[in-house]
Amino acid sequence: MITEIMNNPSTATDQNGEWFELYNAGTAIIDLAGVVVRDDGADAHTIGVSVLVAPGARVVLARSADTAVNGGLTPGTPTARR
User: Fold this and answer.
1) SS3 of 35, please?
2) How many whole angstroms separate alpha carbon 82 and alpha carbon 70?
């Protein structure tokens, strides 16, 4: 489930600052490897590494992990948060 999204950020370029948060509302671990993320246009990205999201956990997926250019966001490892 998408719980938060930053599109068209004001403190960074779209290229560097877009991100979204996913929440696993299910009862099983989800591996995002191979998932294709796409927009309404021609942009698409395939997640090329294993990202395990446990039940009840959230993960932020970002276009850039560089906090100097992405508006200060620190994407990271899936975390349990309710």
Assistant:
1) coil
2) 26
Per-residue pLDDT of the chain (82 residues; tens, 9 = 90+): 999 888 888 888 877 788 889 999 999 999 999 999 988 888 888 999 999 999 999 999 887 788 888 888 878 755 555 4
Length of the chain: 82
**What pTM did the predictor assign?**
0.79
Query: Which residue from 20, 22, 5, 18 is spatially nearest to 70, judged by alpha carbons?
Result: 18
Q: DSSP 3-state assignment of 3?
A: strand
Alpha helices of the chain — where are they, by DSSP H?
14-17
Do 54 and 28 contact (CB within 8 A), yes or no?
A: no
CA-to-CA distance for 10 and 51, rounded, in angstroms? Answer: 28
